[in-house]
Write the structure tokens for this entry.
Amino acid sequence: MEKFRFLTSGESHGKGLTAIIEGIPSGFDINPDFINEELKRRQQGYGRGARMKIETDTVEILSGVRFGKTLGSPVTLFIKNKDFENWEKIMSTDPQDYTEDKSFSAYRPGHADFAGSIKYNQKDLRNILERSSARQTAMEVAVGAVAKQILDKLGISCSSKILQIGKAVNPEDFHQEIDTAKEAGDTLGGKIEVVYSGLPIGLGSHVHWDRKLDGRIAQAVMSIPAIKSVEIGDNPLGFTGSEYHDEMYLEDGKVIRKTNHAGGLEGGMTNGENLVVRAVMKPIPTLRKPLNTVDSKSMQETQAHFERSDTCAVEACAVVAEARIACVLVNEILLKFGGDSLEEILKRVNCER
Ligand SMILES: Cc1cc2nc3c(=O)[nH]c(=O)nc-3n(C[C@H](O)[C@H](O)[C@H](O)COP(=O)(O)O)c2cc1C
């Protein structure tokens, strides 16, 4: 059973986004300013679209926290879509407000429009766009910011960086790469790296496939919109065994490593080294210079639908990946150590160190 569970809801241009998180022990400090800082990080980054300038996301904590500390009860978060005032009629939940305004039918290759509209039997592709949009990752970042505050108390910290944008591997070239793509009406993807340090040994397990932490992290990161590959540690392709595996030595009676090719996981368990996760994001599928496609209503060849979109969202994607991994790690900590309060968990985690 999962110990740290959450569900999110909300459409891209609906009233807002909601999450209910269940399983947070009592006594953890939850600072809304930190959540808002994380939301801001997700909205920033060179190459984001106009929407990021319209909205500054702010979280509202609706339950589960009193005077800044968790109570052990479900924590509910809400983020208002500030653009909703311009979409109130279009995204109304009331049948009387039906309108075709902002509906579209030209599939965007690379997006969820085609398969989603067939699966859910929708003629108006907006009914698919609204939830498949990466807007939902704002709430995931908020939930991740709660998870990070739990990890912080346990001495676990996180960082991330961009390894590549388009073809550029030198950070000094990233902006130029994005400008060139933008001028051409095109989009870019890239590669990110997330590192977590301070993890106790033995999160995850080798005993069953669905308990292996590499698999759990891969699922959490791979399902971020537009992520198409996930690596733990250094990609082992082409290494020999003697080059790749991290040899062990003794220092003051402790086992140490001089390398971390494995990225902190062996046998599906944390091994005390830094957890290193890398992931590749595909180029954004909504292009200002639209791709060839088919119109779902007329069944004629046409140009794909375009609306306000990012040229490149790799930086934001790194923030989302940090958040997704934070949630997996909190769950694993609760599975291994249990406990209903901060004090109980701290004692148990510190005993292992
Ligand atoms: C932070 C972030 C921002 C994104 N922004 C856009 C965007 O502005 N326009 C777009 O078409 N896709 C955007 N995407 C990617 C799409 O959401 C994604 O490609 C789409 O949902 C299809 O899913 P898939 O690529 O995983 O198959 C973004 C993804 C992330 C993680």
Remarks:
- Residues 314-337 form the longest helix (24 residues).
